[in-house]
Amino acid sequence: MTTAEQPKKERKMNLGYEIFVGVLSILSILNIFLGYLAKDPDLSGILDIMNGLFSIIFLGDFAYRMLTVPSKSQYFFRDFGWADLFASLPLPQFKILRVFRLFRVYRLMTKIGPKVIVNTLVKDRAGSALYVLLLMGILVLEFGALAVLKWEKVNPDANIKTASDALWYTFVSITTVGYGDRYPVTDSGRLFGVLVMTAGVGLFGTLTGFLANAFLGPGKQAEGEASAPSAPAEAAALLTEIRDLLAEQKADQAHMLERIAALEQRLG
User: Fold this and answer.
1) Is residue 100 within 8 Å of 80, Cβ to Cβ?
2) CA-to-CA distance for 62 and 82, rounded, in angstroms?
3) pLDDT in tens, the chain (268 residues)
4) CB atoms within 10 A of CB 97
5) Cα–Cα distance measured from residue 28 to residue 98, given in angstroms and rounded to the nearest whole number
6) Contact, 152 vs 158, CB < 8 A?
7) Nearest CA-CA partner of 92 in 15, 163, 33
8) Among 167, 160, 181, 173, which residue's Cα sits nearest to residue 199?
């Protein structure tokens, strides 16, 4: 693989990760507006805790990019790395800078094209499933805690009355541990509790299958390669990769032609 092809290959491999970070950025920006709309300090506390979790994830994302990008200065100054750094800080005035992450994902998806995106996600089904599981877990944790706390805290006999109680109950329910120290007592709270527990069983069941496939998949693949010829499959995979590279080259060429035309207009 040449030097010019290697960044493209890395970009395709990280496409699922880029989309995952982009969706988290959308959710974190949505939490900003929900925080302004929420009149209850306990509900706002859940959003603050989740935003703290997002800050840790985004800070790790910034560190990962700084360690893996070919040019650190280009990423930091030209690709909005500075915005990633400030948006990772747990300060409300910097959270809006997470919009730049959305711009990066949009630019990447526009440059690659929908066909290449679909082919990449389909070929990397295991990695895509992992990001979907993580995203679903975060969504169930946040909105499950918000829903349970909203309905439970109005009852004087409830034992879920704070943001910490709601997040703790939702987390132990998702993980199917169920300590029983926190539980809903209202009908609406129990309804949302049932939804959270059902989602938790599905999430952890799928995660278990993913981990089993990750550990056992290489051995099964080696057995298949030893018992059956793999030349047709390799040829089909190579043909698909060539088509994807051609599609990327066409997109790059169109982008360069647009920049040349814009430059000619400025000079003319």
Assistant:
1) yes
2) 9
3) 444 444 444 444 477 788 888 888 889 888 888 888 878 888 889 998 998 899 899 999 899 888 988 888 888 888 888 888 888 887 777 877 888 877 877 777 777 777 777 777 777 666 777 888 889 999 999 999 999 999 998 888 888 999 999 999 999 998 888 788 888 999 999 999 999 999 988 887 787 777 777 676 555 555 554 444 455 666 666 677 777 777 777 777 776 777 777 777 777 6
4) 20
5) 8
6) yes
7) 33
8) 173
Distances in whole angstroms, Cα of residue 162 to Cα of each of 23, 44, 92, 167, 201:
27, 10, 22, 9, 25
SS3 for 1? Answer: coil
d(CA 35, CA 24): 16
Give CA–CA dist 230/124, Å, rounded.
19
Q: What is the DSSP letter of 248?
A: H
Which residue's structure tokens are 């526009």? 110
Side chain identity at residue 84, one-letter code? D
Report the 3 state secondary structure along 181-218: CCCCCCHHHHHHHHHHHHHHHHHHHHHHHHHHHHHHHH
Gap between the Cα atoms of 67 and 76, Å rounded: 12
